[in-house]
Design brief:
11% strand; alpha+beta
Length: 227
């Protein structure tokens, strides 16, 4: 009878005590127990009719209805059942060991992941710092370029102003040179005119002097009209 059909009130007979759930419960093969309750996982709360102890045991092939226990099981069946229980227990142990190995591998992977994550976070922080420094350098460079452009613009304006001032000075110098030339020409003309006037005056004065000398000579009787 399958163990899942055991219900409250059933009388069961312990076939073997090698099963893990009954090996430490002071059961003997052939003991009779009464089912008092069930819970998930195939666990049964039973009372040992021999010792009157109330314990939890796992249902399985090590239990059968007491009505079927009167039929003696062959030694081969008992050995098969015992071997099946041992294999099941070994499978449980292997599964537990494999689970522990998987847990260890999981913790190793988790530790490696956390270390890698910390390294990535650290590198991201360094990259962020480098990017911040690069941004600051670019800002300073833009400021310097702006100042340079401003200075170049001011220098260009100053250059144009100097060129305009130079041109104004050249124009003023040309104007002064022209005025000086005109003044010189006027002075030369005035000097030439004065010299001409002086020649005329000299000639007039000489004529007057000659006339006065002639008059004096005539008055003195020295004048010779033929001369």
């Amino acid at each position: 009878m399958p163990s899942s059909t055991f219900v409250r009130g059933d009388l069961l007979s312990v076939v073997t005590t090698n099963a893990h759930s009954v090996s430490d419960k002071d059961f003997h093969p052939g003991d009779t127990v009464r089912v008092g309750g069930k819970k998930k996982g195939g666990w049964l709360r039973v009372r040992n009719m021999r010792t009157d102890d109330l314990v939890w045991i796992r249902s399985g092939r090590h239990l059968c209805l007491a009505s079927l226990a009167s039929r003696p099981a062959s030694q081969i069946d008992l050995m098969i059942r015992e071997n099946q229980v041992e294999n099941a227990e070994k499978l449980v142990e292997d599964t537990k060991r494999s689970l522990n190995e998987w847990k260890d591998a999981y913790y190793d992977v988790k530790t490696a992941y956390e270390m890698m994550k910390d390294a990535i976070d650290k590198r991201d922080t360094e990259i962020s710092n480098i990017q911040s420094q690069n941004i600051e350098v670019m800002q300073q460079r833009c400021q310097l370029e702006g100042r340079l452009v401003q200075h170049l613009t001011e220098n260009e304006h100053l250059k144009h102003a100097l060129e305009r001032e130079k041109q104004a000075h050249q124009e003023h110098a040309q104007m002064l040179e022209q005025e000086l030339k005109e003044t010189k020409d006027k002075l030369l003309a005035q000097i030439a005119e004065l010299q001409q006037q002086r020649i005329v005056v000299s000639q007039e004065s000489l004529g007057e002097y000659q006339e006065m000398q002639q008059a004096d000579d005539e008055a003195m009787g020295f004048f010779d009209p033929n001369n």
